[in-house]
Amino acid sequence: MAADEREATAAMIAERARLNRGFMDYVPHNRALGIEVIELVAAGATMRLPYDPRLIGDPESGALHGGALSALMDAACGAAVFMALPSPLPIATLDLRIDYLRRSAPGAAIVAEARCYKVTRSVAFVRGIAYHEDREAPIAAGTASFMLSTSTGRAG
Asked: What is the mean predicted confidence (pLDDT) over 28-33?
């Protein structure tokens, strides 16, 4: 890749990341949960859900509720799709499947990493994992598909 192409690609990724961070701030549910953007790269996103006692799903263990983890995974997967698109388009979650592998640890933040591995004319496909500090010991693994909107506002 020539230097000009690398600069253009880097500029596009930086602009997409800026837009994505703004979108995260705009989504009230993500804000209410405290989801933070850690990193946005080409076709990838890393986000963090801080531990919050209000989000506990199992009072005995202190594990966070699965719904909060689902929201984190959905946000990370959607951001990965947005970072994979050649130009910004509205997207909507079509399917999100999460395999819960173990309970979250009480008091620990959860990190979600997502990678968009395929974009077609009307659908994008993503894989992701959620973990505490060790990505080799995931709490959950997921796959998702997102509908891509065309310039007319309808799926292609």
From this structure: 89
